[in-house]
Amino acid sequence: MPRPSQSQSQRSSTADRPNATQEVDEAHLITCMVKTILNLSINKSIIKRSDISHIALKGDSRLYTRLMPEVLFELESVYGYQLVDVESKGQKAMILCSTFETSSLDELSESYRRRYTFLFLILGYIFMKNGAVPEALLWDFLHSVGIEEQQEHECFGDPRKQFELFIKQAYLTRTKQSVEGMPEESVFLSWGVRAKHEVSKKAVLDAICKLMNRKPTDFKTQYIETQAETSESVEDDMDESE
C-alpha cells in the first residue's frame, strides 16, 4: 500500500486537530458550568437553568444538554452535591443539595446553630402535624414558645425575615389549599425540596422526643416515616455500591 504524500499527511493532521481542541474546550466548559453552579448557590438560592447557560455557555442550550451529565458527575463525586429540580415561577430551576448527612447542631458555628435551631423548630412542628399546617397555625405555635412574628428575637434575630429566607432556599414550601367550611383558600406550609434531601426526619423526631422525654415509638405515624426514610437510604447505598 503506497505511503500517503506529505501534503496528504498534513491535511490529515490538520483535520484531526479540531477534535482534540473540541475535547479541551468541552472540559473547560464543564469546569465553567460547575463553578457557575457553585457560585450561584452560595447562599442556597434557587438556580435557573437559563442563568447557567448564559454565564457559562454564552447562551448555547445545546451544549448545556450535552455537557450536563458530566457536570452532575463532577458535582457529586468531587464536591458532594446533587442538583435537584424545583418549580420556580414556571421556569426550569434547580437547587444544589448536599449528599452528606446533616451535621449535628453542636458541630455548627454559633450563627448557623441559631439559624438551624429555628429551622428545626419549624420543620419539627410541621412533621409532627403530619406534613402540612396552615401558616397562621405555625405562627401561633411559635408565639407559644416565645417567638413573635414582628419582634426581634434575642437568639433567632428577625423571625419573619429568617422564615422567608427558608422559603427562598426551598427548606419550606408555601401553597394555597381549599379547606372545607372556609370561604377562602388557606396558606399551608410543608417541607420543601431542600429539607427533604438534607434534613433527616429521624434526627428531627429524636430531637423532639428528647425535649419531651418520650420515645420515638410513642408517635406511630412519624416513627413509621422515619423507618421508611432509613430503608430508602440503605437501598440507595446498595445501588451505589453495585
Automatic annotation (TrEMBL):
**Matching SMART domains:** MAGE
Sequence ranges assigned to domain MAGE in this UniProt record: 33-226
Residue stretches of biased makeup (Low complexity):
1-13
User: Which superkingdom?
Assistant: Eukaryota
Annotated stretches, region: Disordered: 1-21
InterPro entries for the chain: MAGE, MAGE_WH1, MAGE_WH2, MHD_dom
Q: Name one GO cellular component term.
A: nucleus
The name this protein carries in UniProt is: MAGE domain-containing protein
Organism encoding this protein: Anopheles arabiensis
